[in-house]
Amino acid sequence: MGNKRDFRRDYRNKKKGNFNNPPKEKSEENKVMLKCEMCLQDIQDLSSAIALPETGNPAHFDCVLKKIKESENLKEKEQVVYLGSGNFGVVENVSNNQNPNFKIVKKIDFEDHENIPEWRKQMIKVKL
């Protein structure tokens, strides 16, 4: 066979999850570790963090959701959901057996869209 490559072996290895190249480690200097201002734990994934409106500091998505749920007086068929772009909402389930629907009862603008926090600007620069 000589210098010929055995592509069947490569295919079998990939199928098993064995790749020739070891996984690359992320650079520790690019990894910024910020703390959630609500629970004071490290934020592992800044892309899922929400900026607090008062300070602009990051908080865990789950911490913000929990805070909003506690501050709202929810009725029986209502729940708090994330609507996107830093907005949450109280929705009411108005489903019947044929079609599941919901109605937005209240929209909660949580993040300040005018002033982008510095930690989010840094994250945008890294992605570009």
What does this structure look like?
By secondary structure, the protein is α+β, with helices and mostly antiparallel strands. The chain contains three helices and seven strands, in the order H-E-E-E-E-H-E-E-E-H. It has helices at residues 7-16, 61-71, 118-127, and strands at residues 34-35, 42-43, 50-51, 58-59, 78-84, 87-93, 102-109. It has a three-stranded antiparallel beta sheet, with helices on one face. The longest helix has 11 residues, at 61-71. The radius of gyration is 23 Å and the shape is flat.
Bulk shape: flat
Measure the end-to-end span: 46 Å
Radius of gyration: 23 Å
Q: Would you tell me the overall average pLDDT?
A: 80
Give the strand line-up of the largest sheet. 5-6-7
Order of helices and strands: HEEEEHEEEH
Q: In oligomeric terms, what are we looking at?
A: single chain
**Residues in helices, as a percent range:** 10-25%
Task: Please outline the major beta sheet.
Answer: 3 strands, antiparallel
> Tally of extended strands?
7
Category by helix and strand content: alpha+beta
Helix segment tally: 3
Binned strand content: 15-25%
Low-confidence stretches: none
